[in-house]
Design the sequence.
């Protein structure tokens, strides 16, 4: 079947019930989205499907239509997305394993709400676990990214 | 130059020891490199070395000529190094004490960092394992007839005597095939239920099981005898806990041409090497351990099971690299857990003073269990049973701390801050109870018992940071706790609110003394992390046993603190301590008692058992 990831078309030959996560990781070697729980409880596998945040561990690849964006497609080390740059500015990551998912959730939030209050941040990000407990810096980074987005929209 | 290795010659990330261990070694290494560059420059310019100095990556000559290190590096590599170098006095430090951006940050924020889970080797296969959920017992037999024909399945292999590995073309195919294998598991001989485990802890409160009595000041029995019915008797409990690292256990291994390569995020490459040699029969010089980034350790990745299982697969599939990934369910039910523990206190209050405190703690030994798994035995007592109970700064006149060792059953392990993770809760909650009994401010009662100046200062600093004693909004409460672990005194004040939907944790104020603060931003990060880790356990962490198996399987029944529950955390870093200390763990122990004491202040409910969700709801 056909799959569009980060603007590139891929042909994959797998069972349609295979979760998107395992197609990305083991078939396409796109390892930014992480395996954490397999039941959409931790958010480490978060990607965008047509711009909306989705838990790729729990979506059969056969049901995916449209554009898949992973952390690698959001920005690169040399051209970071505004959210990634804010994450670096606030030195958010510790072990770092959950951060691709956190960043994808935050980017999706700011896409629809560039001025989120604490409650909106809570709602959008409480699906993403961080066992290192980096939440205060995540919150600060979301606010920094939001301010940058609003500035660039002026 | 000879730089001594750590205890037993191991490389290990644990015990908050890395900073202490590396601080002087790294400075000596840096100073030696600087000396080599100076010698190289002196040789190149044919001048006396003493006419040269260094600054900002260059050697500077007396007449101001600047030679970058990059131009001297090759020559410097061949000069003979001095045996001893002088280190810069603290007054001349430029980098130590500055917050410096972390080198791994961009990778980790762009999905380009390689964790163990992300290792890819040419023509690699993907595997998962199923190991006996009766931890420590064997696999009697299995029937994989339904699994062999499943999509993508390549091999089904025995895993020592304890389980099975399914090797496939994709991790998910391996997961699905493993689900349909039928197993006949042997059972364990130890307690089969949570109640049974706690009964074993109760049964160990006797002389025959006494492990240590590191503190016995004054005459506790006499004062308690005198007090009679006025003695305050309390019992506290803590459950088992999983490490629940975000990255489930995994490792990749390849045996090819007599060479064994292992890729794994791990906390002890030397243990990995030794265990891999033991299980494969390959000598250590033919094994390479590639240590990748790890998605959380907290003590879990100082265990070697996940590496051993990958090696067991690799040696059966010579020439093929295999990545072995555990499901979250396998990870959660096959951890080596933070042990369960019970503490019994007897306290006597005289006026505004604590005149006697007797502390008895019963728990399985982490060291016996953990070291036993790598073939080491620990002679003498295991002081982690009474860690952060016997070794605190309090100078109570009649003060006794006794540890009791529960015989090893279910495997237990180091879990961020080890014994301090439960004992901090026990002892500092009891201290709060005694303060209320004595009708004395909980900070004042502590200060009255402490002369150690750096410890007093963290209490004073946290009181100031939290504005302790200020008028609080309605339904708010503040609690204090002070725990010294790994040499770091840490005081925390937590502010909670009792709302209609449960307890809301608003603020955590923390003061910690690390002796020398190398990188304040990183210390703050570790404090925040340690606190949230401790709060998660206090609020909701619990591993239970039923029919000999762990009941919790994934984050739906072993959840952790999330964004909407995470408080604002305000940090104060102090440097009054006698020497440099590590900060990976010391932030954790005070979080649970500070929270319990705050909840008591806000609600009047005294929590003597973790997790608190058993008794109280959180927002």
Sequence:
């Amino acid at each position: 079947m056909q799959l569009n990831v980060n603007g590139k078309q891929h042909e994959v030959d797998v069972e349609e019930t295979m979760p998107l996560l395992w197609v990305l990781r083991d078939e396409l070697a796109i390892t930014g989205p992480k395996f954490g729980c397999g039941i959409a409880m931790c958010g480490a596998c978060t990607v965008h499907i047509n711009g909306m945040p989705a838990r790729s561990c729990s979506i059969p690849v056969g049901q995916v239509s449209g554009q898949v964006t992973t952390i690698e497609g959001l920005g690169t080390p040399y051209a970071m997305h505004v959210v990634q740059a804010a994450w670096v500015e606030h030195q958010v990551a510790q072990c770092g394993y959950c951060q691709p998912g956190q960043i994808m959730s935050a980017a999706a939030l700011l896409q629809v709400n560039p001025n989120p209050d604490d409650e909106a941040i809570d709602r959008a990000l409480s699906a993403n676990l961080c066992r290192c407990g980096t939440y205060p810096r995540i919150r600060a980074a979301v606010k920094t990214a939001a301010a940058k987005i609003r500035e660039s929209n002026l | 130059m000879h730089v001594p290795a750590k205890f037993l010659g191991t490389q290990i990330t644990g015990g908050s020891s890395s900073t202490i261990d590396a601080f002087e070694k790294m400075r000596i290494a840096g100073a030696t490199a600087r000396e080599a560059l100076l010698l190289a420059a002196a040789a190149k310019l044919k001048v006396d070395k003493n006419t040269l100095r260094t600054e900002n990556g260059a050697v500077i000559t007396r007449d101001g000529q600047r030679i970058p290190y990059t131009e001297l590096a090759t020559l410097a590599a061949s000069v003979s190094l001095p045996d001893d170098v002088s280190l810069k006095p603290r007054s001349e430090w430029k980098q130590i004490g500055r917050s410096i951006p972390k080198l791994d940050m961009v990778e980790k924020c762009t999905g380009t960092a390689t964790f163990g889970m992300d290792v890819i080797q040419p023509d690699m296969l993907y595997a998962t394992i199923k190991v006996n959920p009766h931890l420590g017992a064997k696999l009697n037999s299995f029937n994989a007839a339904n699994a062999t024909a499943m999509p993508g399945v390549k091999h089904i292999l025995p895993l020592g005597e304890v389980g099975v590995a399914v090797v496939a073309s994709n991790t998910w195919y391996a997961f699905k095939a493993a689900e349909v294998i039928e197993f006949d598991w042997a059972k364990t001989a130890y307690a089969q239920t949570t109640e049974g485990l706690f009964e074993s802890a109760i049964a160990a409160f006797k002389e025959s099981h006494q492990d240590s009595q590191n503190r016995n000041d004054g005459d506790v029995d006499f004062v308690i005898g005198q007090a009679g019915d006025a003695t305050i008797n309390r019992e506290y409990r803590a459950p088992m806990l999983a490490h629940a690292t975000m990255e489930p256990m995994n490792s990749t291994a390849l045996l090819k041409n007599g060479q064994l390569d292992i890729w794994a995020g791990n906390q002890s490459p030397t243990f990995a090497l030794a265990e891999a040699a033991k299980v494969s029969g390959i000598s250590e010089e033919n094994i390479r351990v590639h240590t990748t980034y790890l998605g959380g350790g907290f003590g879990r990745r100082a265990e070697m099971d996940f590496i051993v299982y990958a090696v067991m697969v690799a040696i059966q599939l010579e020439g093929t690299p295999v990545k072995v990934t555990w499901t979250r369910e396998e990870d959660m039910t096959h951890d080596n857990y933070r042990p369960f523990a019970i503490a019994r206190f007897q306290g006597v209050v005289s006026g505004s003073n604590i005149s006697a405190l007797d502390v008895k703690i019963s728990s399985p030994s982490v060291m016996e269990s953990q070291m036993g798994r790598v073939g080491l035995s620990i002679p003498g007592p295991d002081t982690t049973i009474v860690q952060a109970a016997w070794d605190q700064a309090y100078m109570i006149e009649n003060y006794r701390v006794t540890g009791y060792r529960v015989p090893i059953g279910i495997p237990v392990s180091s879990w961020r801050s080890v014994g301090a993770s439960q004992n901090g809760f026990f002892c500092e909650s009891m201290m709060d109870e005694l303060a209320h009994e004595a009708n004395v401010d909980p900070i004042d009662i502590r200060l009255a018992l402490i002369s150690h100046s750096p410890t007093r200062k963290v209490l004073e600093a946290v009181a100031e940071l939290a504005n302790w004693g200020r008028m609080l909004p309605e339904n708010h409460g503040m609690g204090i706790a002070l725990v010294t672990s790994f040499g770091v005194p840490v005081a925390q004040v937590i502010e909670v609110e009792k709302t209609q939907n449960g307890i809301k944790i608003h603020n955590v104020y923390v003061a910690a003394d690390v002796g020398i603060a190398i990188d304040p931003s990183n210390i703050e990060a570790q404090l925040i992390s340690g606190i949230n880790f401790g709060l998660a356990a206090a609020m909701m962490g619990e591993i239970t046993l039923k029919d000999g198996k762990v009941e919790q399987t994934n984050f739906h029944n072993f959840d952790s603190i999330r964004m909407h529950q995470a408080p604002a955390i305000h940090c104060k870093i102090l440097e009054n301590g006698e020497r440099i200390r590590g900060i990976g763990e010391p932030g954790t122990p005070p979080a649970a008692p500070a929270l319990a004491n705050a909840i008591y202040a806000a609600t009047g409910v005294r929590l003597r058992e973790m997790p608190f969700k058993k008794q109280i709801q959180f927002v």
Observations:
- Residues 135-153 of chain A form the longest helix (19 residues).
- The two ends of chain A are 42 Å apart (CA to CA).
- Strands of chain A lie at 2-5, 8-11, 46-49, 52-55, 67-69.
